[in-house]
Specification:
This protein is an alpha+beta fold. It is 31% helix and 30% strand.
């Protein structure tokens, strides 16, 4: 099935790409979650619009990505959340929470879709997250989760 990606999907492509995937993967995963739309002849206009929006958001050069990487790795990010007595959180820390904490710590504005968490953050303490700034540049960021 031919689809148009509306978001970046790891291992598949970036927003605006037209890819061919298995029917079940598109029907059951990509389309319901809003990561893709079905390809149509009229969809080519959507592709152009998605690519323009991606170009505005995208970090253009590797030098610019390395500069932002330096800013991110130098930032001290603390995130205050509600937690129980044993240090377990009520819920988990999301990518949007991390992106807003980076901005609050004085770091650069990061899109929440670029934040990658290896496993859900459900405890207090220091955790490591990755921010994919460019295809070749990934920033490792330490996030300290504290009780509110």
């Amino acid at each position: 099935m031919k689809i148009i990606l509306t978001h970046e999907v790891s291992g598949l492509g970036t927003a605006g790409d037209v890819v061919d995937v298995k029917d079940g993967y598109a029907r059951n995963y990509l389309v319901p979650r809003g990561f893709a739309i079905r390809w149509t002849k009229g969809g080519e206009q959507d592709v152009a619009q998605i690519r323009r929006a991606r170009k505005i958001r995208e970090i253009a050069t590797i030098e610019q990505a390395n500069e932002i990487k330096g800013q991110l790795e130098a930032a001290k990010v603390k995130l205050a959340v509600r937690a129980g007595e044993a240090g377990r959180l009520f819920g988990s820390v999301t990518q949007a929470d991390i992106a807003s904490a980076i901005k609050a710590a004085g770091g650069p504005d990061v899109d929440k879709r670029r934040v990658e968490v290896a496993s859900p953050i459900k405890t207090l303490g220091a955790h490591q997250v990755s921010v994919r700034l460019h295809a070749d540049v990934v920033a490792k960021l330490g996030v300290e989760v504290i009780a509110a």
